[in-house]
Design brief:
Layout (H helix, E strand, L loop, with lengths): L44 H29 L5 H15 L2
Length: 95
């Protein structure tokens, strides 16, 4: 394939510069009206889920800090909690 420059393209027309879009403003002399435009934002369900995970994460971190403090103080492990943990483990093992 041989390219001989722009002259070899049939029906070629020069590109014309476009005018930039502007919003007319109200002026008594010109009689134009101002166009009000508004932007709209829609949050997807995935974005909402991510936001909820972030909120849940902060609650999780708060609870984790409470548990760590209780462990450090030696008040976290109670006989009731040990029994509950043992029951859960046994229920998972036994059919």
């Amino acid at each position: 394939m041989e390219v001989n420059g722009l002259g070899s393209i049939p029906n070629l027309q020069p590109v014309q510069q476009t005018k930039s879009a502007t919003t007319p403003t109200s002026s008594p002399a010109s009689g134009t009206q101002k166009i009000n435009t508004t932007d709209e934002l829609q949050i997807s369900s995935a974005a909402e889920m991510i936001q909820q995970l972030g909120e849940t994460s902060s609650l999780h971190n708060e609870r984790l800090a409470q548990i760590k403090a209780a462990i450090k103080e030696g008040t976290y492990e109670t006989p009731e909690k040990m029994e509950a943990a043992l029951s859960k483990i046994l229920n998972e093992i036994q059919p």
